[in-house]
Amino acid sequence: GIQVEQSPPDLILQEGANSTLRCNFSDSVNNLQWFHQNPWGQLINLFYIPSGTKQNGRLSATTVATERYSLLYISSSQTTDSGVYFCAVVGGGGSNYKLTFGKGTLLTVNP
Amino acid sequence: ETGVTQTPRHLVMGMTNKKSLKCEQHLGHNAMYWYKQSAKKPLELMFVYSLEERVENNSVPSRFSPECPNSSHLFLHLHTLQPEDSALYLCASSLTSGSLFFGPGTRLTVL
After folding, report:
1. Which one, of A16, A23, A35, A32, lies nearest residue A74 by Cα?
2. Nearest CA in chain B to A9
3. How far apart are the first and last CA of chain B?
4. Does residue A92 have a pLDDT over 80?
5. Residue B5 pairs with which residues in a beta bridge?
6. N or C: which end of chain A has fewer CB within 10 A?
7. Which of A2, A43, A100, A103 to mutate to probe the B interface, most B CBs <10 Å?
């Protein structure tokens, strides 16, 4: 099946800093989503972005499908951005409902 | 109530017990999912129910049994579980294979 690699595995920032999280995948995709899991376990959908660029406030994401990667940008980070960020994809040819998750990036934003 | 709700939020059970997890979505979606999140492992898709198909992860033991009576409700019936089944069980929903929306999860402990 499709492989999803996220980097870095851990990231520590001071409040106000910017960061870039990366997601590499091993095959063509027709569905790619980014999620944030807060320290209480709730998963929030950030972006549905199989290709192109989207922005939502301080967050933006870019997927370059031909080169098999996606980037999540966090600007002016806040302590509430702490948590785990997951990338998930559906590989071409499989069920459209079978999202494969990466292991995540654990982000800690210190005040 | 809006979004995706799950009950109970916490569950402790013995290996001989039978229990059920319940999920309800109020988003008008037509696909519902069960995911398992264990420590140090990526989120694992267990089951999907949609208008088009039912997807099962073949590695899920038969002691987990899903039930989807309609597009708004999803159950996961548990029986004779093992301690290694202790995990966070997450329900999610989507409109066809679009953005996934998660519930808060049920933290399950098997003694």
Report:
1. A16
2. B40
3. 33
4. no
5. B24
6. C
7. A43
Q: Are A97 and B90 within 8 A, CB to CB? A: no
Helices (H) and strands (E) in chain B, counts: 0, 11
Q: Tell me which amino acid residue B47 is.
A: F
C-alpha distance from residue B16 to each of A24, B2, B63, B110 (Å):
42, 35, 11, 10
Of B33, B43, B97, the CB nearest to A31: B97
Closest CA relative to residue A98, chosen from B36, B41, B45: B45
Note the pLDDT tens digit of each residue in B12-59: 999 888 999 999 999 999 999 999 999 878 899 999 998 777 888 888
A31 and B88 within 8 Å at the Cβ level: the answer is no
Which of A40, A44, A48 minimises the CB distance to B98? A48
